[in-house]
Amino acid sequence: MYRLSKLRFGFPVFLFLALFLDGAVSQVFSVQMFRYPTTMISHLVVLWLVCGVIFEADGAFDMPLARWAAVAGAVFDLYYTGIFGVYVFIFPLVIYVTRQLVAWISPNFLSGLLIYFIDIAVVEGLGYLASRAVHLNDAAGSAFLVNTLGPTLAFNLAMFVILYFPIRWVYNWLK
Fold first, then answer.
1. Which long-range contacts (CB under 8 A, 24 or more apart) does 31-39 make?
2. Which of 6, 117, 152, 166 is the most buried (most CB within 10 A)?
3. Membrane spanning segments where (predicted)?
4. In 3-state terms, the chain is what percent helix, strand and coil (to 5)?
5. Model confidence over 88-104: pLDDT tens digits?
6. What is the pLDDT of residues 33-86, one digit of tens each?
7. Model confidence over 138-170: pLDDT tens digits?
8. 27 close to 75: Cβ distance less than 8 angstroms
9. Which candidate, 64, 46, 55, 63, places its Cα nearest to that of 118?
10. What 3-state class would DSSP assign to 38?
């Protein structure tokens, strides 16, 4: 059924649109998002991927989300971080974690918010550990939790609340 739907072409188009919107949001709101000592990081790509798993849960479509997540991770690494390999593995891991959580939790708006909370924490935590491993970041773990993870979670959960229903409408239109 996936091969016959508009979702086959629409999903990657909107995925890469979300990828570039991450950078645009960060650029336009840089004064508000990157005010010392706090940092808020936009993760619209993760939002699109998580919504893909949540809206795929009805079983009608079997999308190759992990492959698209790896491709988006490669582009994200090359375009934003300059270190190839970090998000190539983190984004497919988010797909795996989300699918495991969706198997345990019935997907709806509130459970999707919880799943997205967990996924953003995983993405930011693994990104922090990877940057610590290659000595790009020397911030203490407590400073990371207070100055980066907290504001990032708040921003991205607000984006989830604002964009959940428009994204659901787009998915239903693409199906």
1. 33/155, 37/143, 37/147, 38/147, 38/148, 38/151, 39/147, 39/148, 39/151, 39/152
2. 152
3. 40-57, 78-97, 109-131, 143-167
4. 80, 0, 20
5. 999 999 999 999 999 89
6. 888 888 999 999 999 999 989 988 665 557 788 999 999 999 988 888 777 888
7. 788 888 899 899 999 999 999 999 999 999 999
8. no
9. 46
10. coil
Written as one letter, the residue type at 113 is: L
Residue 157 near residue 113, CB atoms below 8 Å: yes
Domain spans, the chain: 2-174
Q: In the chain, count of helices (H) and strands (E)?
A: 8, 0
82: left (phi over 0), alpha (psi -120 to 50) or beta: left
How far, in Å, CA of 121 to CA of 153, rounded? 7
Q: Can you give 13-26 as a three-state secondary structure string?
A: HHHHHHHHHHHHHH
User: pLDDT per residue over 113-127, tens digit each?
Assistant: 999 999 999 999 999
The token duo for 162 is: 């604002």
Question: To which residue do tokens 């997540």 refer?
Answer: 69
- What distance lies between CA 55 and its chain's CA centroid? 15
Q: At a CB cut-off of 8 Å and minimum separation 6, what does 60 contact?
A: 1, 175
57: left (phi over 0), alpha (psi -120 to 50) or beta: alpha
